[in-house]
Task: structure prediction
Amino acid sequence: MADQSIPEARTPEKALDDGALHNAVIKEGVSRRRLLGTAGATGLVLGAAGGTVGYAARPSEATPLASVGADEAMFHGKHQPGILQGLQACGHLVAFDLAAGVGRKGAAALLRRWSQTARRLMAGEGTAADDTDVARDAGPSALTITFGFGYSFFARTGLEKQRPVALDPLPDFSSDQLDKARSNGDLWVQIGANDALVAFHALRAIQKDAGSAARVRWQMNGFNRSPGATAHPMTARNLMGQIDGTRNPKPSEPDFDRRIFVPSSGSNDPSWMANGSYAVVRRIRMLLDDWENLSVTEQENVIGRRKANGAALSGGSETTEMDLEKTDAQGNLVVPINAHARITRPDQNGGAAMLRRPFSYHDGIGTDGVPDAGLLFVCWQADPLRGFVTVQRKLDRGDALSKYIRHESSGLFAVPGGAAEGEYVGQRLLEG
Result:
């Protein structure tokens, strides 16, 4: 959990150097809504500049506050938005179940409505009709809306023959205490933005578009650090205070696409999944009272990295390669054998890797004074069996962190490739 998340926002120049724009998913621009609502804004922040994989902008690149609202992600493209973009300040995850009798035709009409709404909102426009005006004064704020299909969707629509084998239910894990009512679902929508009102506006629009065709099965709200909150580029921290995302795969790596996206040919997946990915979604509660009772040294031994700067216990900086064989004067491994960072390394899991893009969450404090808080874990991979399942099985066998977390809900969704101009998401499945 603590070693593979996406860092915050990175500058466009750096992103281009790394090939991270990857299909031009972010466009710097001024929307009509921003022209009307934010032209008079004042103040400066060290804000996100729109890089796809996003690391916070450098202090020398300070930009007007209104620029946060101006960042715009593209709806149409090779991949759906919300996968390659950097962490957003706020988000909503929501699953729907189709109503009885809706079937394939009704599902196609719903995805057509949702896609039209997503395209408009991501461009900083209002919905086609009956807009709530919640986000009237804001720009797009890097809004992304992503759609996926759950295992049960295919039986409800008579498309069982098109269901990917990779979508078979996840196995049980020892840390699972899953609430079935908050797991799985026919359809899944991920919403992220750098403004809370923009994100809520999108959530409300998607819910209204569902109408009588689908009902909400579960919905979760999350957050991350806001763009410009740090004075220099930093990897994100989670609610345990740990730097979280040091070894996340990068689009510049030669095998990135192979590990994260379904190829357009040569795979066992159905053709409608070309350029798509599989999302594993887990609500992971952090037992913060227990965690915070540990000393910093004990916390670092659980993770295998320094809390202050994310450096491996074997030395160096955050990005220094971890030395798994290094020992101390007593001959003990410097990075404990059950340290989370050791166990999750791809080279310790046959090269298995996931592109993690999570949100933190806090759903209040119980009558016992214990916070219901943790991570809305979202990871992307071309094959969940070789990605999430491989790593989680390894964690199941002795991760020191497992004592301080609890998996409370779960879902696996097939997320097709991006919609081309004039298409809606899932069209190749529903009309193929």
Summary: The chain has one domain: 12-430. Residues 103-122 form the longest helix (20 residues). The chain has a mean pLDDT of 87. Residues 12-430 form one domain.
